[in-house]
User: What shape does this take?
Amino acid sequence: MLFQKKIENYQILKNPFKAYRMNCRHCNNELSIEFTDLGSSPPSNSYLTKYEDKHTEDSYPLKVFVCDKCFLVQIDEHKNASEIFDENYAYFSSYSSSWLLHSKEYVDYMTDRFNFNSHSLVVELASNDGYLLQYFKEKNISVLGIEPTHSTAIVAKEKGIETIVDFFNEKLAIELSRNQKKANLILGNNVLAHVPDINDFVKGMKILLAKDGIITMEFPHLCQLIDQTQFDTIYHEHFSYLSFTTVKTIFSSVGLELFDVQEISTHGGVFKDICQT
Ligand SMILES: [Zn+2]
Assistant: This one.
């Protein structure tokens, strides 16, 4: 037994990534099927200063697994999400004029289709610098942003958009639903893939959503990744690579029903799904 343990330790030292095991973040099944292995890489959007040495920068594995029970494609959380989305986070959504246009069109479409008005509450998860909520606010609809990165949330607050600087999860959803009326619309654009504990996140949405409320999620679809060999979309900020099969499974596990899907062309082929309690 001692001998066996020594061999395992030796393998870990020789190749830290080979001896590594993880369980599915949705169904807890042990993952054994490798989807792809891109070696290792430093974290993205974490830029070095001129005083930092690139040779000593930490690298983390980019090994992707697929669950053979729920088919969720995923990488492990090698670096804590709070370290990735920290105060130095440098992605500001408003820098992209095409993304702003897409956001404005989304707001027009959703208010027309679902008749949101001044009595409605729209909550955006990962609201960044208020790039989207500003258009709901223009229509006199109450908005609340939830955004973990201080750098972007400050800009949103300067636009007059109420923003909670925190990670969204079940605990926060319980607190919010005690203190405020529930959300008529919850939206998350390119956030679902960034969430390490996807079950907790989806449970939180269910708690915060009003009866007959609507959720929209935009995310890059797994089939696009495969068809167009979008290997550069695999990085440490993206913990999950989503398909409708898995999204439907995860949402229905908390009682949310998927009732519409649209294909849109932003971010190299993204799908929006619309769920309701
Ligand atoms: Zn699974």
